Structure prediction request, 191 residues.
Amino acid sequence: MHSLIIIVGVFCFNLYAQDTLSIPRMVDTSCMNCHADPSLFHAPMIAGQKKDFLEFELFNFKYYIRDHEIMSQIMEQFSDQEVKEMALYISNLSLCEAQAPVYENNGADAKKGEQIFSKTCFECHKKDTSGIGPVLHGQKTWYLENAIKSFQTTWYDPRPSRLNMRAYTDMLSKQDIKDVAAFLNEQKLCE
Prediction:
């Protein structure tokens, strides 16, 4: 029941914010309530990510290409131009703000995770926005584990980047996923 109240509250606030606040103010007071809160494990930290990546994901939610009940309902309320403005604004936030706390790794081996990441992931996922893919360093462990698992289990269209990722994620065991997530979570974005 508590989560339903939060969902309805965020949705209603989003509609209110859309009518009364500028995009930057709306992002700061609405989007970042979830996406900058380290205690909300399901919401990735997004400050400072690449504009193109943010646009891609936000449009996927807006047009139900990537199915996520909450994000799709929120994003469908915005025009294409507003989505682009959101992505631009979020990309200009400091990547340092996207640092999640280091979580207890529950049996994960971060050293093994570093080896796996170094062999298969580092080419696209840099510690800054110079890579092809999003920055994964300093991200929430739970979110990373579920994101990797979603690439393994999504054999249909709603995960558009599945085709790019399947050669790398399908070979990972559950333990490998935990190890990689632990390694990435421990990485500091800004010293």
Q: What stands out?
A: Residues 2-96 form a domain with the Cytochrome Bc1 Complex; Chain D, domain 2 fold (CATH 1.10.760.10). The chain has two domains: 2-96, 110-186.
